[in-house]
Amino acid sequence: MAIEKGRGAPINRTSDRFNLPAREADGDWLDARDDIDGTTPRLRTTVTVERPRTIISRNSSPDIGFSQSINAYRGCEHGCIYCFARPSHAYHDLSPGLDFESRLFAKPDAATLLRAELAKPSYAVAPIAMGTNTDPYQPIERDWHITRDCIEVLAGTRHPLFITTKSDRVLRDIDLLADMARDRLVAVCVSVTSLDPAIARTLEPRAPHPHRRLAAIRALTEAGIPVHASISPVIPSITDHEMEAIIAQVAQAGAYGASYIPIRLPHEVAPLFRAWLDAHYPDRAARVMSIIRDLRGGRDNDPNFGSRMRGQGVWADLLRTRFNMACRRAGFSRERLTLRTDLFRPPSGPQLSLF
């Protein structure tokens, strides 16, 4: 199987869940020129402007720790093979495979929409999460700065914010985040899935090096910004052996706590992950999937609330025991961080007040 250099998904087929036609690499989304060595042209990233009517998404899932979120982008160039958001690209008649990480959507009106929603008399303040679907600090944020625009609105209204990212680009907004942290209005979760560059290079091909993420934790902490570390997903026989080392490293960098979720393979993610295993770890592909099925009640994926985040059976018990022991050794507190909501001041008029 030919692997697109610098990309995560080995295949690019749409699913039949929405009666969409199968899609293969067809040339219109490849660079116009051939590489010097005559190989297949490299896949380029395209960005399409999206104009939604609202920007705050809401959920009532009992095993998710937030009720409101903002997604500045659809699709994610980091290309993480395990990303549970991949199937959403099928709604656009695009593949959850390579299309998801190369055909992106940006929402430049996000900050304006956010300001309007926060100004509504009916708005009930609750922490907003960013990065729960696609990464708010993926590479295109450098040029579009939609995430920063939204943070400026939240900072100006003293609105609480949770950020999840696997990118040290978050440091570009450290001025805003440090200001919010002084009033306990923000917390950042940095994802560190593996410390091994060789694993990370195929697992999360366009995400920053693991050591840069550790450096980001350290810099955020030194700026007074509370940082939580996520080692999700834990992948049996691929990354699970690193659990203790990751927890020790993020603790040393200054994280106040950590969390993990065994790998989830919803919908079209499962065949993509299987193809990735066959391409990069053919020697253990069968074993990996066997353990995943043990964790997921005999299936590739468990969609049920609660158990979908924890797994079940012997393997789940073993991971939980190892994780808890490592956290105790690291000195992590089990107390959950809460953000203030009492400082919120709604924006007045079409723009935030300067005084």
Layout of secondary structure:
Elements: E1 46-49, E2 56-58, E3 68-70, E4 73-74, H1 98-102, E5 103-106, H2 110-118, E6 128-130, H3 141-144, H4 146-156, E7 161-165, H5 174-181, E8 186-191, H6 197-203, H7 210-222, E9 227-230, H8 243-253, E10 257-259, H9 269-280, H10 285-295, H11 307-310, H12 313-330
Parallel strand pairs: 1-5, 3-6, 6-7, 7-8, 8-9, 9-10
Antiparallel strand pairs: 2-3, 4-5
CA gyration radius, whole angstroms: 20 Å
Total separate domains: 1
Across the major sheet, the strand order is 2-3-6-7-8-9-10
Output the CATH homologous superfamily: Aldolase class I
User: How would you describe the shape?
Assistant: globular
Number of DSSP helices?
12
SSE ordering: EEEEHEHEHHEHEHHEHEHHHH
Name of the CATH first level: Alpha Beta
Question: Which class best fits the helix and strand makeup?
Answer: alpha/beta
Which band does the percent of strand residues land in? 5-15%
Largest sheet report = 7 strands, mixed
CATH A-level architecture: Alpha-Beta Barrel
Report what the structure shows.
α5 (174-181) links the parallel β7 (161-165) and β8 (186-191). α8 packs parallel to α12 (313-330). By secondary structure, the chain is of the alpha/beta class. It has one domain (46-330): Aldolase class I (TIM Barrel). The protein is globular. The protein has twelve helices and ten strands. Residues 21-41 have low confidence and may be disordered. Helix content is 32%, strand content 10%.
